[in-house]
Automatic annotation (TrEMBL):
It comes from the Bacteria. This is RidA family protein. InterPro entries: RutC-like_sf, YjgF/YER057c/UK114. Transmembrane segments: none annotated.
Length: 126
């Protein structure tokens, strides 16, 4: 079985030792993504802006793996405050459209309190 690792160059990939995504066994596993503006390194305070940026990072990883949001079969949302999940729903509906994956939302602490949402996905590989 071949394994392909994809890096986005995010600061924690090198610090912690993980890949943004791994393509293996017919799946694309995308690591949890937080809402960081890759051009500036800024983290907006607003959960919906962080959600938008996290989805952008995920979309880039999926694209590099040769798939799209339409191929996602599982998504996990992690938020420190469950009340902030609902404002993200329109963005999530737009991202997944007519191909909604199985989903779980977990209320938990994230690596840094400035992060309001983290999203990870698993997709079928091409």
């Amino acid at each position: 079985m071949s394994i392909r690792r994809i890096s986005s160059g995010g600061e924690f990939e090198a610090k912690v030792g993980y890949s943004r995504a791994v393509v293996a066994g017919g799946f694309v596993h995308v690591s949890g993504c937080v809402g960081v503006d890759r051009a500036t390194g800024d983290v907006p305070a607003d959960v919906t802006q962080q959600c938008r940026l996290a989805l952008e990072i995920i979309g880039n990883a999926l694209s590099e793996a040769g798939v799209s949001f339409a191929d996602v079969i599982r998504v996990t949302y992690m938020l420190p405050d469950a009340a902030e999940f609902e404002p993200c729903w329109p963005l999530l509906k737009d991202a997944f459209g007519a191909n909604p994956p199985a989903a779980t939302m977990i209320e938990c602490g994230l690596i840094d309190p400035k992060y309001r949402i983290e999203i990870e996905v698993t997709a079928l590989a091409g």
